[in-house]
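Render this sequence as a predicted structure.
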Amino acid sequence: MVLKKWFGSLLLLLFCMFSNAIGAYVGINIGTGVSNMPSALDVVAILKANQITHVRLYDADAHMLKALANSGIEVMVGIKNEEVLGIGESPAAAAAWVNKNVASYVPSTNITAIAVGNEVLTTIPNAAAVLVPAINYIHKALVASNLNFLVKVSTPQSMDVIPRPFPPSTATFNSTWNSTIYQLLQFLKNTNSCYMLNAYPYHGYTTGNGIFPIDYALFRPLPSVKQIVDPNTLSHYNSMFDAMVDATYYAIDAFNISGIPIIVTETGWPWLGGANEPDATVENAEAFNNNLIRRVLNDSGPPSRPNIPTNTYIYELFNEDKKPGPVSKKNWGLFFTNGTAVYALSLSNSNRLTGNSSVTYCVAKQSADSAKLQEGLNWACGQGGANCSAIQQGQPCYLPDTYQNHASYAYNDYYQKLHSTGGTCDFDGTATTTTVDPSYGSCIFTGSSSSNTSGAIFPPVALGPTTTLGESSSWNFQASIFQSLLTAALLALILL
């Protein structure tokens, strides 16, 4: 028994050492409210083609778990909210869930975490009493299957559990849930697990009544006179994202519990919204997610925990068009279901999206009036002689179907053809020049040097291919080695 405990501790140490060695990561959420959802194999092909190493599933879909086998991709599986009550009232139900949805897939499918419900405290508060029992029962089922060293358990909560997140240093959890949250934190501490946080600067900004500038929400530098500072600690916050994470750390500290890292299980920005959602734009979504990725991959944490990186999952892979609610709720995806990217992303610090200094593009201004954009678009495609076939319905540049996008394509086509003979990039003040190639997915702007946007990590991909060993990222290679090591160690542990 002593040897088994020692061996288990060694496995955990190896896991921690390896996790620190590979640095912070950015993963992707895969929602299910999608019309014409690609097959599980096609989804995994998209993930592999774009070197996505971590995914979060909101359920334990058998097709996805099978398709992810032997991919090296780390998988967080979810217990649906409607399942939490039953599992929280029955250890047998928890054991059956683990046997069916975890034990039967590992080690081929690299399941490393279970998310018990999603924002349970704020969406189904009647289940609060059984949330921690459900987590405990799932953990005990993992222990019984000798999987507790491989698979961690937690539960994602929204920022709504913290009524006043700013300034971060005074943040505390809603006292209504003090007992539940205290028990949760004790469990996370005892099992070396993470606090799962859903943090959305988009919501923080749009509901903030102008208190914070949009640049703060988009990770953009602020002038010295607009710096966001916690008056109690004098810590400077360069982004609302960091402030949200830090507020959660301080709320945990209020329980006199330490040593629990935070993992952001959801964040992102919608790229399309309704008439009353002016901040849901392609430009803002692209800026937020690119800056988020750079922020996470610099391997540092918020001011109160600078040495603890904030691993993060972007919401989400595809637009969930089946979701009820405003237009923005349906348009958070990074990809269309045909596998093309909505906009270009750069996944690593060494592969940033950069401008091509040899080419200048003409695009619509983000702040341009829609009526003026329509006039400029009509002129460019008519009298201006721009080739606007690519922005017609069914063509590669039709989506996103916005004046901003269509005008950018038409303006640029006109400008590339005529700027050498006096054509300008003005269009009644609605246009501006840029050296960043605005191409995305299979939508290629005139002047682009290649079929893929330079530096993009999410190029258009054909559905179905698999990545060869030579094309795999080094992380996946390391992960497969580590998975093999853990599998062998686990087998040895079972035999002891």
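Summary. Residues 361-434 form one domain. The first strand starts at residue 26 and ends at 30.
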